[in-house]
Design goal:
The complex is a heterodimer of chains A (about 280) and B (about 325). With about 280 residues, chain A is mainly alpha-helical. Chain A contains 11 helices and 2 strands. Chain A has one domain. A two-stranded antiparallel ribbon of chain A has the order 1-2. Chain A is elongated and about 60 Å long. The two termini of chain A are about 35 Å apart. In chain A, about 45% of the residues are buried. Chain B has about 325 residues and is α/β, with parallel strands linked by helices. Chain B folds into 2 domains: about 5-225, P-loop containing nucleotide triphosphate hydrolases (Rossmann fold, 3-Layer(aba) Sandwich), CATH 3.40.50; about 235-300, Alpha-Beta Plaits (2-Layer Sandwich), CATH 3.30.70. Chain B is built from 10 helices and 13 strands. A 6-stranded mixed β-sheet of chain B has the order 5-6-7-3-8-9, sandwiched between helices. The radius of gyration of chain B is 24 Å and the shape is elongated. Classes of the chains: A mainly alpha (about 280), B alpha/beta (about 325). At the A-B interface, helix 2, helix 5 and helix 11 of A face helix 1, helix 2 and helix 3 of B.
Chain lengths: ~280, ~325
């Protein structure tokens, strides 16, 4: 059993290598991602001039600027979006480019194909979020507590299984119905809206604000802000992580179950390779 | 004296339905190690569905499938079967041939170094070493097809399933693929070769299963299939030593009750379609023309026996 799991795990670096090779062949697309984020930050830097800091919540007793407030939100929101789209679309993309049947014709577990298809994204997203935050802080002279970097990274890591599970659930819908990116877009927007990424949750109607307390993205964004802007340290971060882990675990389990059901159904119907 | 080669693939009563449509309607098939077994049939016959079931990509609705004696499906079974799919989009076009093969080799359980070594070997086997480092998006269709064969050879599988490998290749490319596959069969691989190109199985396949609309119409040797040919039609080129075109009526008069004759396509007065009547040897008909002063310059079958058999078995008019 252990040997079989290890043998499957040994295949994962092959997926990462493949994806890095493919990503490097799209240099312009990679650069445009970075430019897209930079453009968002520039827009928000102008909006920040209109926002009175006293309207914003304080973190660890520190009054933050709007740009400091929003930078954490948009970077995390973007990270979640990339993760969701990649996880949800990974199998569909294999289906569309005609490689899914070739993958599934090898003696590789479906779970390995699924994990492998997003392995590079799972590795890159937290790293990319950290690098982007650092770049924004440097360019705009924002004040982040360097002691909060590790706790903030762990909070992001605890959010990853949530995004992964959500992406798998959406991926199950996409594999079944051959469409679903619209659903994904709407879901991402709703999650972002109720996350406090670009404005404080207190501005939302009370019942949405109350529900948002349980939105893992909102918990993560607030936790990262507390760590990086308020210098809250480990105790706050650990309590956020303690809430995020079961929520993420449940979402991941649900996503894995739904995705397996979807693939089993396709195999039974004989429509796995069809697009 | 050695007995027959062991059975590699055994299919019994295989049914696969897609909703109300029956893609396979109780198919039986036995393929042995060391033979190229042609799976012949027109479009929509169920060839690809059968190969997909054998690969484990599609579950059967009813019936049993045994590969190398084992009836379990899943990962272990997939490791024993190599697949050359029909489509030409089964690779990552942005990366090189080597990188593609290394990726699939690793999914087949080879370690990194072994994967690179094996990829180099099979690329050599299919004659793609020179271009192996280039992204395959720029490769010709024939080269991509050879890469498909190379991928199927990565683990030297005892059973190889090949789906329409040559249907859009030029004659040289097709011959190269067939030679490669024939070599594997000689070394003991059981090859199931799905095709609708009837003439390519002559001299290549040793057994044939003819599928039509999900049903086996014929199973046996290629010679046995050829014996199913429903009619004998020939195209002859004639000359009578006089200027002017020969009329079909003139030839019909000489042939009498031996054969029917019709003008060939283009009605050029030189080419005719000749069909000897039941029990009349071709030579007798030709001799009757020669006795009437007609030189028969050339004579060839209008269609091969395999093609005739194909049409007869699918119920199409020759």
């Amino acid at each position: 059993m252990t040997a079989a799991v290890l043998a499957e795990a040994a295949k994962l670096p092959a997926f990462v290598r493949r994806d890095i090779k493919v990503a490097l062949s799209y240099r312009v697309a990679f650069a445009s991602d970075v430019l897209g984020l930079a453009a968002q930050v520039v827009v928000f830097s102008f909006i920040a001039k209109l926002v009175e800091p006293s309207k914003l919540p304080t973190f660890g007793g520190t009054q933050v600027t709007y740009l400091e407030f929003v930078a954490t939100g948009i970077v995390l929101n973007l990270a979640l979006g990339v993760l969701l789209y990649r996880v949800a679309g990974a199998i569909r993309q294999e289906q569309l480019q005609g490689t899914l049947e070739s993958l599934l014709a090898t003696p590789t577990a479906t779970a390995t194909v699924q994990i492998g298809s997003v392995a590079s994204t799972l590795l890159m997203v937290p790293l990319r979020a950290t690098l982007m935050m650092g770049a924004i802080a440097l360019v705009f002279g924002l004040h982040f507590d360097t002691g909060g970097i590790v706790p903030a990274t762990l909070i992001v890591a605890a959010l990853v299984p949530f995004a992964w599970g959500l992406g798998l659930a959406t991926g199950a819908a996409i594999v079944t119905f051959r469409r679903g990116t619209g659903l994904l877009g709407a879901g991402t927007t709703l999650l972002g809206l109720a996350s406090g990424a670009v404005f404080p949750l207190a501005l939302l109607p009370a019942w949405i604000a109350a529900a948002a307390e349980w939105n893992p993205l909102a918990i993560a964004i607030d936790g990262v802000r507390e760590a990086l802007l308020g210098g809250a340290g480990w105790s706050e971060a650990l309590s956020d992580i303690a809430i995020l882990i079961p929520l993420s675990g449940l979402t991941l389990a649900l996503g894995v179950g739904l995705f397996k059901l979807a693939l089993d159904r396709e195999r039974r119907l004989g429509t796995l390779g069809m697009y | 004296m050695s007995g027959p080669e062991p059975t590699a693939v055994e299919v019994r009563g295989l049914v696969r339905r897609y909703g109300a449509r029956e893609a396979l309607a109780g198919v039986d098939l036995t393929a042995r190690a060391g033979e190229v077994h042609a799976l012949l049939g027109p479009n929509g016959a169920g060839k690809t569905t059968l190969l997909r079931v054998l690969t484990g990509l599609v579950d059967p609705t009813e019936g049993s499938v045994r590969v190398l004696g084992a009836c379990e499906r899943g990962r272990a079974a997939r490791g024993r079967v190599g697949l050359v799919p029909a489509g030409d989009r089964s690779f990552y076009l942005r990366i090189s041939g080597t990188e593609n093969l290394v990726f699939f080799a690793r999914l087949n359980g080879l370690r990194r170094r072994a994967a690179f070594a094996r990829a180099a070997e099979v690329l050599e086997d299919v004659g793609l070493t020179d271009v192996a480092g280039r992204p395959i998006g720029g490769w010709s269709h024939g080269m991509q097809k050879r890469l498909c064969v190379a991928r199927a050879l990565l683990t030297a599988p005892p059973v190889l399933l090949v789906d329409e490998a040559t249907h859009d290749l030029d004659p040289e490319g097709a011959e190269r693929i067939r030679a490669l596959i024939a070599g594997l069969a000689e070394r003991g691989t059981a090859v199931l070769w799905a095709t609708q190109r009837v003439d390519e199985i002559r001299g290549f396949a040793s057994a044939v299963t003819f599928l039509d609309r999900g049903t086996v119409r014929f199973a046996g040797s290629v010679e046995g299939l050829m014996a199913q040919a429903a009619s004998r039609r020939y195209v002859i080129r004639v000359r009578n030593g006089h200027p002017g075109a020969l009329a079909a009526e003139q030839l019909a008069g000489l042939l009498g009750a031996r054969a029917s004759v019709l003008p060939g396509a283009g009605a050029d007065g030189e080419h005719f379609r000749l069909e000897p009547y039941e029990g009349v040897p071709l030579g007798t008909a030709i001799a009757a023309l020669a006795d009437g002063g007609i030189d028969v310059l050339a004579c060839r079958q209008e269609r091969s026996e395999i093609e005739e058999a194909f049409l007869a078995l699918t119920g199409e008019k020759a």
